[in-house]
Predict the structure of START domain-containing protein.
Amino acid sequence: MNHINLVEILMDVNQWTSVFSGIVSRALTLDILSTGVAGNYNGALQVMTAEFQVLSPLVPTRENYFVRYCKQHTDETWAVVDVSLENLHPSVISRCRKRPSGCLIQELPNGYSKVIWVEHVEVDDRAVHNIYKRLVNSGLAFGAKRWVATLDRQCERLASAMANNIPAGDVGVITTIEGRKSMMKLAQRMVIGFCSGVGASTAHTWTTLSGSGADDVRVMTRKSMDDPGRPPGIVLSAATSFWLPVPPKRVFDFLRNENARNEWDILSNRGVVQEMAHIANGRDPGNAVSLLRVNSGNSSQSNMLILQESCTDSTGSYVIYAPVDIVAMNVVLSGGDPDYVALLPSGFAILPDGPTHLGGGIPEVCLGDHY
């Protein structure tokens, strides 16, 4: 990605929260002290607040009140740096403070960029559940490696979404560029919806149903009104965590495989699941958007498809899906507006148990149902 586009993503709070939706649960620009000079972000200075998350209610979020500064060092290099303002406002109580953190972005030939990322924080992590302590202590949960891995994967996804032709790796019922872009936009909204509803954000109130450890089932209810992208009524979300003695990649490959879906997904009703469309989203074959059809004897499911996005990088993997109405999906495949397709996403976050992929995985399950 071009270095100027990267700077814009970091300085525009809406783009920043969208690109890093798995990490940034909430963010707001409180004040813009400088917009920069010469029509760009050089010298831009803004006061922000943000909440950072792991996709589990068992890991408390980190909230920061900070200033973000953008500076062009040379013709080819930009710096975007954050530092907490809590020390200037003793009344602000926070478990996490940012020392100077951020990234250096260097322009490379042919529209590429080199990114060096640093996360330097003071944090009280005593409230993290034992099942996630190794992950958090390794830096894979909130550290620079996760930010860079997410940025790399999102750049690949953006390049795929902006493609002006249908790549050879795509298969199925997608026949137009417009339909491809609409389906990817719908999948992006599904992923953002999942990420916003499974973490420990202070905007949510989770209730523990049962258990006394990591296998607790936590539930949350929210009202859905006047949102064309979500069915009206009460939305119930449930989440639980568990450890598996197998590598995360094996768990990821099993969950994203449509042929194994009838072994765990109630939506399949033990029927045969067929992949109708496949959009490749990067170098790893696990990064893809799929449209699935359930061939079941249940007549009530004859008008239902399943939209799925799977993605993986060195810090974690995700399989996120939602049932979609076949009539609405036909509109999307024809290039129609996907914002009016009602979605209730569910899915899995599969995280490594510590700093290596040789150990077990910690799948995080989030289920959303509409009543």
Notes: The chain is about 20% helix and 35% strand. The chain has two domains: 3-157, 168-202+241-350.
